[in-house]
Amino acid sequence: MYKKALITGLTGQDGAYLAKLLLDKGYEVHGLVARRSTDTRWRLRELGVDSRIVYHDGDLADASSVQRAVLKACPDEVYNLGAQSFVGSSWDQPITTGIVDGLGVTHMLEAIRQFRPQTRFYQASTSEMFGLIQAERQDENTPFYPRSPYGVAKLYGHWITVNYRESFGLHASSGILFNHESPLRGIEFVTRKVTDAVARIKQGKQRELRLGNIDAQRDWGFAGDYVEAMWLMLQQDKPDDFVIATGVTTTVREMCRIAFSYVELDYQDHVVIDPEFFRPAEVEVLLGNPAKAERVLGWSPKTNLKTLIQSMVDADLKRVAKE
Ligand code: GDR
């Protein structure tokens, strides 16, 4: 028998890659999607999966719509990827971020507990929960210290997942994913902001790139590799929490150098530091230890940062040329 999955955040980067992965495995894929006047399905079209998904109108902030989606879809697996996911915006919209990224998780867990307790649940947790890091390499036992309203809301989402697992015996797992990127990344995130600018500068459509703290360090992987880890977590007999990372950390500055030098440009000729893009509180460095995921899930990252950034520049060069 084929399985059914319900994905929240379906129209985002991870939602699109995960939908493709599950469809390729023979799943019936459902998505909870908020109705918007703008086009939100371009990533699904890009991966050729748009017409193969069953859409449910709804929003994580609205508990009744979440319940309705669970009752209609009858999913075997729920992947809760929906969130206000841009850290920078979370200072401007702390309440929306808290409702969607925090309470939204409880809306889904409650729907599962009440109507379909056999459903397996995946929560998209984040390395932002480590924030002001308490260990040089962060793993499942590292204490949390979030540094943004986003990180704080996600920490609530993480602990309520753990709590429902322990309180009600739900098969609920939390993936603590470090930064993961792709050509489908939103333009507000720094990798895509850089690769898009590189393509524009190379084609004479832009001259400079304004960035904030380029000394920040991140552990960047490829989103396509990371959605595989989400699926693997729900195939285990026992629910658990896993850090998903590459184990390599790189500065934003070095990431810029990789992107610009790929098209024979020097980032120093184009990058301008602009205080507007600094955050009220910064996460200076993140470096994950994915040893448990390797051991238990048999998962390891397949794509290194250079290959990833170059593939993003290639995609942006093509897209910008068509504009
Ligand atoms: P992050 O991703 O906050 O780590 O969260 P982002 O790419 O936005 O920032 C990474 C680092 O780059 C620095 N930076 C800039 N960032 C942006 N966006 N724009 C700039 O101009 C800029 N200049 C420097 C930032 O200060 C930061 O240190 C991402 C999101 O996908 C989260 O949803 C997810 O949970 C985590 O990754 C893991």
Give an overview of the whole structure:
InterPro entries: GDP_Man_deHydtase, NAD(P)-bd_dom, NAD(P)-bd_dom_sf. Belongs to the NAD(P)-dependent epimerase/dehydratase family. GDP-mannose 4,6-dehydratase subfamily. It catalyses: GDP-alpha-D-mannose = GDP-4-dehydro-alpha-D-rhamnose + H2O. Catalyzes the conversion of GDP-D-mannose to GDP-4-dehydro-6-deoxy-D-mannose. Residues 6-312 form the NAD(P)-binding domain. With 323 residues, the protein is of the alpha/beta class. The chain folds into 2 domains: 4-180 and 221-244, NAD(P)-binding Rossmann-like Domain (Rossmann fold, 3-Layer(aba) Sandwich); 186-218 and 248-286 and 303-322, UDP-galactose 4-epimerase, domain 1 (Alpha-Beta Complex), CATH 3.90.25.10. It is 41% helix and 15% strand. The chain has 10 helices and 13 strands. The protein has helices at residues 13-24, 42-46, 63-73, 94-115, 149-168, 190-202, 223-234, 252-262, 291-297, 305-322; strands at 4-8, 28-33, 54-57, 77-80, 120-126, 172-177, 180-181, 209-211, 217-218, 221-222, 241-244, 250-251, 271-273. The strands form 4 sheets. The protein has a 7-stranded parallel beta sheet, with helices on both faces. A two-stranded parallel sheet has the order 7-10. Strands 8-13 form a two-stranded parallel ribbon. Helix 4 (94-115) links the parallel strand 4 and strand 5 (120-126). The N and C termini lie far apart (45 Å). The model has no long low-confidence stretch (mean pLDDT 98). The protein binds guanosine-5'-diphosphate-rhamnose. Guanosine-5'-diphosphate-rhamnose is lined by residues 85, 87-88, 126-128, 178-179, 188-190, 193, 211-214, 216, 218, 252, 277, 279, 282-283.
